[in-house]
Each structure stands twice: as C-alpha cells, then as structure tokens.
Amino acid sequence: MDKIKQLFFKYYELLSYLFFGVLTTAVNVGTFFVLQKFEPGLYVFNNTVAWVVSVLFAFITNKIFVFKSENWHFRFLMKQALWFFGLRVLTLIIDDAIMIVGISLLNQSVTLTKIIDQVIIIVLNFVFSKISFHHKKRSVTD
C-alpha cells in the first residue's frame, strides 16, 4: 500500500491533470455538441465558444487542484492567467484548424474530427499548463 501511495504522490500532478483534463474535455465536447444542436453549420464558432468555456474551467481546476498554485494576489493571478490563456490561444488555433481540415477539406464526420482533435489538444495543453503554472517561482508580492 505504501508503494501505491508513493507512486500516487510522485505522479500526482500528471494523474490530477488527467482527471481534470477528462472533465475539461467533457466540458468542451459537451458545450460543442449542445451548440451544434442549435447551429450545426457554425462548427468553428461552436468550437471556439466551447474552447472559451473549457479553458475557464481548466484554468480554475489547474490552478487549485493540479498545480496547487496558492498565490491569489491580483498581479500574480493576472500574469498567470495571461500565460495560461495566451498559450491556450495557440491550441485554439490548432483546434480550429483541425476542425476545418477534418470537416471541410477531408469530409470527415464532426464527431470523429472532434475526437482526434481533442487527443492532440490534451497533450499540447498539458505542456502549456506546466509552463503557465511553473513559469518561474515568484514571490507572494509579485
């Protein structure tokens, strides 16, 4: 049992990221498909709105639970949020590009394209999240 505990604590960041990443993906995909029900032709718009909702969810869960970033001073929080959202904009561009290529150019189904898209985006977002929350150690007054 101690070995399992050691492994859990050793890989806590990755395991918790995966857990909250699954929830974030569920928020993204759920939001996307709800919007698709109302406006199926606007898949890029729907994908972008789903991205905004899921990135807000991801920022909060990553800050509190995954990377346990406890500094809530306004300046620090704004810097952290800018890094997080700024890097996530890169994945939004990749996300929308995959959707356009998969659906409009390759004539693949929306569902298949969204699944492939999310696998790629999850990996990129993990790397970018680590950068955002471990950018550099800052003091409490930063």
Give an overview of the whole structure.
- With 142 residues, the chain is an all-alpha fold.
- It has helices at residues 2-10, 12-38, 43-66, 74-105, 110-133.
- It has one domain (2-133).
User: Which structural class fits the helix and strand makeup?
Assistant: mainly alpha
Which shape, going by the Cα principal axes? globular
Which strand-content bin applies to the residues? under 5%
What is the number of E strands? 0
How many domains would you count in the coordinates? 1
Poorly predicted parts: 136-142
Instruction: Characterize the largest beta sheet: strand count, sense, and whether it forms a barrel.
Output: none
What's the end-to-end separation, in Å?
41 Å
The topology string of helices and strands comes to HHHHH
State mean pLDDT (0 to 100 scale). 88
Task: Provide a count of the helices.
Answer: 5
Helix percentage range: over 70%
Task: State Rg.
Answer: 17 Å
Task: Name a few traits of the molecule.
142 residues; 5 helices; 82% helix; disordered C terminus
List the helices and strands and how they pair.
Elements: H1 2-10, H2 12-38, H3 43-66, H4 74-105, H5 110-133
Helix pairs in contact: 2-3, 2-5, 3-4, 4-5
Structure, briefly:
By secondary structure, the protein is mainly alpha-helical. The protein is 82% helix and 0% strand. Helix 2 crosses helix 5 (110-133) and helix 3 (43-66) packs antiparallel against helix 4.
